[in-house]
Automatic annotation (TrEMBL):
Residues 42-430 form the Amino acid transporter transmembrane domain. This is Amino acid transporter transmembrane domain-containing protein. The chain crosses the membrane at residues 68-87, 108-131, 137-167, 179-201, 230-251, 263-285, 305-324, 351-372, 384-404, 416-432. The keyword Transmembrane applies. PANTHER family: AMINO ACID TRANSPORTER (PTHR22950), AMINO ACID TRANSPORTER (EUROFUNG) (PTHR22950:SF683).
């Protein structure tokens, strides 16, 4: 049986039976039992991969962002970014179904802007995920420092984090990495919940001065940030939803890509709720003495316990963002697919296949390690990623993609079409700011 693209298409929209095997994919070419199956991510697996792509390092910086902005503006900005990124995620699904040869955001840019667009988005895309991998390595090294009470220098822990990320991210397919996400997501959520509950039960946050009498949080409903603080806070919130470009790779490896939208909505709804609750509770009880990463806000013992749970989640995050953000092997998987696309080595277990794949993951890991060592302050690295590259990859391309697919579909310039054109242009402009 040979299928040019998605195996799920039938008259009744049902999924093909397990005995029916995809042998041909527009992106991955011929898929055989002798090679890796790049189309093996289930609906639950899609949700967990999406949530692990979003929930990771970003959640640890949200309370600090609320400290800069205040709770009310902070929640409003968080929800606004959630709405825009959810729309961007939706556009990814529709664009992929309309253009099945697209694997990554650079393929979309090539359709819209030509070779120059592909080159520009390729560079930005790879830089972004390498920087995110670097923040993952930095987060793991901070956790190892906390658990060992600074038993050795940070450089050693960063090297250990890089080695762990390389080993796990060298798994080739999303389907096989899904089980890591099932471990990593609960671990990071448990760690965050431990800190959230602990700060509510303590008489004061760990960084607050010891004074006589009860300590009162200096929480602000409305902040008065400087320009730099305001930009830093918004960039941190953008970073928290920065899994958006990684959704291209996830839908490309789904068994039934038509289930992408419901999976994405479940993911975004859950992620936004978790971010809002954690950000508000931790900041409410810690005020200006909140730590970044937030896991350090409840004191030494709780910090060690939280990082004990969080480390598997941080390792999985680094795995996913090094891989495609698994598929997140994003930079590595992206480079790998584009190097071998159209070659028999892409779907074989040949020496060229393995050499190219391990070379990609190793190269990304080395560069990420250098970044983590050069910018050892978590909040500064997260803000830098969000400000330089976050909006470019989470906002602007999707406005262009919607206009590309729908510009010629105006039915007498209907009101709904005009509204969506206006919204797409606004998203593009906001991404420039």
């Amino acid at each position: 049986m040979t299928i040019s693209d998605f195996p799920e298409t039938k008259d009744d929209d049902s999924v093909l039976k397990p005995t029916e095997t995809v042998t041909q994919d527009v992106v991955f070419g011929e898929i055989t039992e002798d090679g890796p199956n790049y189309r093996n991510v289930s609906f639950p697996g899609t949700i967990i991969l999406m949530m692990k792509t979003q929930i990771g390092l970003g959640v640890l910086s949200i309370p600090m962002a609320f400290d800069y902005l205040g709770i009310v503006p902070g929640v409003i900005c968080l929800c606004a970014i959630a709405v825009v990124t959810t729309w961007s995620d939706y556009v990814i699904g529709t664009f992929k179904l309309n253009h099945r040869e697209v694997y990554g955001i650079d393929d979309a840019a090539a359709l819209i802007f030509g070779p120059i667009g592909r080159w520009a988005l390729s560079v930005i895309f790879c830089l972004y995920w390498v920087f995110v991998s670097g923040s993952g390595i930095l987060g793991i090294s901070i956790g190892l420092n906390a658990l060992s009470t600074h038993g050795t220098c940070t450089a050693v822990f960063s090297m250990a984090a890089a080695i762990l990320g390389f080993c796990f991210s060298s798994v080739r397919t999303l389907g096989r990495v899904t089980w890591l996400a099932w471990i990593g997501l609960p671990c990071i959520l448990v760690a965050v919940m431990i800190v959230t509950i602990a700060v509510a039960l303590r008489d004061r946050p760990a960084a607050a001065p010891m004074t006589e009498g009860p300590w009162v949080s200096d929480v602000k409903m409305f902040g008065n940030p400087s320009f730099t603080e305001g930009v830093t806070a918004v960039c941190n919130l953008v970073f928290a939803f920065s899994g958006t470009p990684g959704f291209f790779a996830i839908i490309s490896e789904m068994r039934n890509p038509r289930q992408y939208t419901p999976a994405m909505l479940v993911c975004q709804g859950g992620v936004t709720t978790i971010y809002s609750v954690v950000g508000c509770v931790v900041y409410y009880y810690c005020g200006s003495y909140v730590s970044s990463p937030a896991l350090g806000s409840a004191g030494g013992t709780i910090k060690q316990i939280a990082y004990g749970f969080a480390l598997p989640g941080l390792i999985v995050t680094t795995t996913i963002v090094t891989h495609v953000r698994p598929h997140m092997q994003i930079p590595a998987k992206y480079i790998f697919v584009h190097l071998l696309r159209g070659s028999r080595h892409l779907n074989s277990n040949s020496l060229v296949h393995w050499g190219c794949w391990l070379g990609c993951t190793f190269g990304v890991t080395v560069v990420a390690y250098i970044i983590a060592s050069s910018i050892p302050i978590f909040d500064s690295l997260v803000s830098l990623i969000g400000s330089l590259l976050g909006t470019i990859l989470c906002f602007q391309p999707y406005g262009c993609m919607w206009l590309y697919d729908n510009w010629g579909k105006a039915k007498g310039s209907s009101r709904s079409w005009l509204i969506m054109v206006g919204f797409s242009i606004v998203v593009i402009v906001v991404g420039l700011s």
